[in-house]
Structure formats: C-alpha cells, structure tokens
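So, can you check these tokens?
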Amino acid sequence: MITNDNIQRLYTTYATAPGLFEDRGLTRLMDYAFDTDAIDFDGDRLVFNTIDTDSPLHSIEIERIHGAEEIGRWLAVILPSAIIFLDRTDLRTTRIHLK
C-alpha cells in the first residue's frame, strides 16, 4: 500500500543514488521488464509504456534512477524529484508522486 510514510521513507533512503547497481535495486526493474510490456530498456534509458509519450517521465535515463523497491503490489522507481509506482497486478495502472 502506498502511504505518505512510505513515500517519505523512499525519498529519504534514496536521497542520493547508491554507487553500486545492486544497491539501487535495479535488478528488480530488469526482472519486471522481462515479465511485462509495461517497461522496456532502450539503450541507456528506461521507457514506461504506461505513461503518455508526451510526458517527460515516459523515458528517463537509467543513471537518474536512485532506486527501485517493491511495496506490496507496487514497484516504486525512485527519482530525485519523483516516484513512479507501477502496479504489478494491473499493468495498465501507474501512479506518479512529484516531490
């Protein structure tokens, strides 16, 4: 469940991007991308197919991702100023929190 406490914890935990790929939880994103069409990797970018192509969050550089973490049925992708929540049970549902 997405709560304000979870959101604040994610921003605090991932205030800066950990140096190691494994510490950022990006393997979760890779596993999710293999299992679904909701996200794809395109070179050095992560593409969210559930977000409108006109949105600046439709495609982001992987190096800008501070972390990825599972919260219940959601996969949270943490950026410096936003969190993108991907619903792992309903692939059409995406929530975005702007800081």
User: Anything to note?
Assistant: Residues 7 and 83 are 8 Å apart (CA to CA). The radius of gyration is 12 Å. The mean pLDDT is 88. Residues 4-13 form the longest helix (10 residues).
